[in-house]
Amino acid sequence: MEDFAIKETTPNIPAMNGSMLPGTALDIVEQMDFLFVKVFNARGFIAYDGPYIANPQVVVNPYVVVKVGRYKVATKYLKPSLDRAETFAFKEEQINSDEEVEILLKDGAAITVGKVSLLISDAIQRDSVGTSYAPRWYALKDRNNRNTNMEVNLTYWRGTQADAEFACSWHSDSAVDACCIPFTRSRHYHSPILFYLRVSVNEAVLRGNNGNGAKIYVKATLGDVAKKTKVSNMANPKWDEIILFVVAEPIDGSLVLTVKEQPNGERSVIIGRCTIPLENVQKREDDTPIVSDWYNLVGPEGMVGKLHMGISFEGGYHVFDESIHYSSDFRPTTNSGIPSIGVLHLGILNAAGLRVMKLMENRTDAYCVAKYGSRWVRTRTILDSVAPQWNEQFSWPVYELYTVLCIAVFDNCHLHGGPEALHQQIGKIRIRLSTLEVNRVYTFSYPLAVTQYSKVKKMGEIQLAVRLSSSTSLINRLRTYSQPLLPKMQCSSTLSEFKLDKLKNEAASLIELSLTRDEPPLRKEVISYMLDVGVETWSLQKAIANYDRVRMVVIGFLDWFENIRNWRFTMIFVYANLLLAILFPNMLLPFIFLVLIAAWLLRYRKRPRLPPDMHIKLTGIVINSRYDQLRVIGRMQTALGELATLGERVESLLSWRDGLATSVFFVVFVFLCVAACCITYAIGCRWFMIFLMVLLVVRRPIHRIISISYLKDFLDRMPISYLKNFLDRMPTRTDSMF
Fold first, then answer.
1. pLDDT of residue 651
2. Where is the C2 domain (predicted)?
3. CB contact set of 421 (below 8 Å; sequence gap of 6+)
4. Does 426 have pLDDT greater than 90?
5. By the 8 A CB rule, do 16 and 10 touch?
6. Which one has a higher pLDDT value, 544 or 257?
7. CA 94, CA 389: separation in Å to the nearest integer?
8. Span 344-357, mean pLDDT?
9. Which sign does the torsion angle of CA 257, 259, 263, 267 carry?
10. What band does 415 get if pLDDT is binned at 50, 70 and 90?
């Protein structure tokens, strides 16, 4: 049986052994040694880009070839009047230190016109990434080892991946043709800024409409997305509906509103249309009222009426491009002034045991993509290796602890399958930041798996190093637990899960459109996999998984009762309580509260030290795919999911999965238990129960009404309760689902 457990590792990284890569902050990746060769130019000949000329002083289309061991790489065509520096990085474990660096000057016919050999052992060890070594002119000899007037300008040294030249250099472990080099390099991407465009369609006044039962509706079109209102049968139709679109900066284009009539059994007829440039639409950051206006409707014969609407860009909302359970950001679009509470550091070390993805060529060309917030990063592609070593480090500012870092591994099919070949998925993992201890370095090997043919298939393992550094005080981190998870506008005007899912897919489409235009592009299938595009909200798979989650929560409490029946360790406290109830009734409740404190401290000793494993059973993959799109059980699925989430969050308070949150709750719980223990010991259990019965049950009706009104006013003044904000940040088993 395949092992999907997460394993702790001990990599040789500076953060663990106290060392540091020279002059850098790369402290959670292993050091990789490279030999760098930087070629600037050549001289002593006449460069010519025309047809071949039999003249030793004229070199047609000259270029330099750098040869180290079994690796050979060529520069672009040289021009003596222009320095066009190119850097090449050769991994030292793939070459021998007693070998030579051969520099060959060739012409367009691949004929060597000059060469020079340099000893690798003479290369200078670079002691700092800021150190710059001046290039030297090296004299070239011809094929007969005779001196020539030609020289090549270059420098070479030994360094690590922390070197400033590393990012833009050619790498020996990613050796491809020159045209494919950009598709193998490390790259950073940024998602565009997204807004919700709110269109409040109120009513219309139409000329010549006698109210003869015509079915009239409004169709709103923005780019390739079209949405429509319900049908109105009134003479002056009213809708009072809100239509939401997702728009990306830079904002351009126009919103087209079309009023249509739908006769019975016939095609819709256009009554009128109005076009609104998006650059004229107002932006709002809070819940200030939207300014509504009347817009002229223009038909084939001129103006046919007016349409009453309110249109605005909602800067106070967060536009979700991921599932809300796996979101990496909750800030509103206009997030100016929100300070960060820490920095997330990710070290992508290596992978092991990857499956062969290209069966015809019997090879795997793997690279990683990580996303947090609006920033994406991609590692370089390691060619033809099932155990690639990346050792690249990235960092992101953190604004909310209840967020998820997503890392996925792909096979680069662009190099051998052409631009149209799809990059294959190798696996994806998620790490929730609230489960990480501050300033602790987590080094684990995570399983990579995908679902294929109704089964979970392990594709290999990836080794990561993660550290969460705090840039603020403990009080400020605790304050985030009392604040609403979503922006204020999103709390006061919530969107349904079904509508959020549709808007999420619209946002993902705009991100795909933006990032696929970058050079080199981030592939569409990569973005879709990272953002879970196409994973429907309504599916029988999720209903079965949510049912299993509820069952696991219930089983957790049933196991405790079963331990009592089987005379396990827990039964000692239960029978001690029964004995106290008989002999010392006044000590029953105080003893119960003290036992609760002791049980919680016992859980602290057994608190989880490892991240949550992938739970295979929760995937619900045993269900046939033809049932995936059933929406009959949609309401049951949502209810099951919410019930399971609530139970798992309460469990998280006791399991110390989120250490900071559980510590706060533990302090409050101990205080309440000690207070209850003292009160019940002082007045006795009998009088305490009588007091609660009088307070809650047999009060005068007028007092009950006054208490309820005071409670309602208190809740009205608090838009979101502190307890709900606290529970919303507790980790659940959704982190362990594929």
1. 72
2. 177-295, 324-446
3. 413, 414
4. yes
5. yes
6. 257
7. 13
8. 94
9. negative
10. confident
- 595 burial (CB, 10 Å; 0-12 / 13-18 / 19+) is middle
| Average pLDDT, integer, range 130-149 | 82
Q: How many Å apart are CA 170 and CA 127, to the nearest integer?
A: 21
Which helix (H) or strand (E) covers residue 450, if one does? strand 441-452
Handedness of CA 183, 188, 192, 194 (dihedral sign): positive
Q: CA Rg, the chain, in Å?
A: 33
Beta strands in 565-681 (DSSP E): none
Single out the residue of 658, 552, 667 nearest to residue 600, CA to CA.
Answer: 667
Residue 527 vs residues 371, 425, 591: alpha-carbon distances, Å: 10, 11, 56
The tally of CA atoms less than 13 A away on the side-chain side of residue 514 is 20
Q: How confident is the model at residue 626 (pLDDT cuts 50, 70, 90)?
A: very low
pLDDT score for 445: 93
Model confidence at 678, pLDDT cuts 50, 70, 90, reads confident
Per the CB < 8 A criterion, the answer to whether 186 and 166 are in contact is no
Of 199, 181, 154, give the one whose Cα is nearest residue 73: 181
pLDDT at 451: 78
Which three-class secondary structure state does DSSP give residue 473?
A: coil
Helices then strands, counting H and E runs in the chain, come out as 14, 31
**Strand-strand pairing, 136-141 and 147-160:** antiparallel
CA angle centred on 479, ends 478 and 484, rounded to 5°: 120
Tokens read off for 180: 């494919």
Report d(CA 678, CA 684) in Å as an integer: 10
**Cα(9)–Cα(351) distance, rounded to whole angstroms?**
12
Which tens digits make up the pLDDT trace of 50-63? 554 455 566 778 88
Residue 486: exposed, middle, or buried by beta-carbon count in 10 A (0-12, 13-18, 19+)?
A: buried
- What contacts 449, CB < 8 A, 6 or more positions away? 4, 427, 456, 457, 458, 459, 614, 738
Mean pLDDT in residue range 376-390: 92
344 neighbors 398 (Cβ within 8 angstroms): yes
Q: Give dist(CA 570, CA 361) in Å, integer.
A: 60
pLDDT, tens only, 508-564: 999 999 999 888 889 999 999 999 886 655 555 666 666 677 777 676 666 666 666
Angle at 358 between CA 352 and CA 363, to 5 degrees: 50
Do the Cβ atoms of 185 and 173 come closer than 8 Å? no
**Pairing verdict, β 282-284 and 302-314:** parallel
Name 272's Cβ contacts closer than 8 Å, sequence gap at least 6: 206, 258, 259, 297, 298, 299, 303, 304, 305, 307
Peptide bond into 250 cis (omega under 30): yes
**Residue 322: burial class (beta carbons within 10 Å; 0-12, 13-18, 19+):** buried
Q: What span, in angstroms and rounded, lies between the C-alpha atoms of 471 and 485?
A: 20
Q: Is-contact 477 660, C-beta < 8 A?
A: yes
Look up tokens 């076009």; give the residue: 275
Which of 108-122, 123-137, 557-571, 651-665 is predicted with the least confidence, judged by mean pLDDT? 557-571
Give residue 124's pLDDT: 85
Q: What pLDDT was estimated at residue 116?
A: 92
Within 8 A by CB and 6+ apart from 515, the residues are 189, 191, 376, 521, 522, 527
The 10 Å Cβ neighbour count of residue 1 is 3
User: Can you give the pLDDT at residue 625?
Assistant: 40
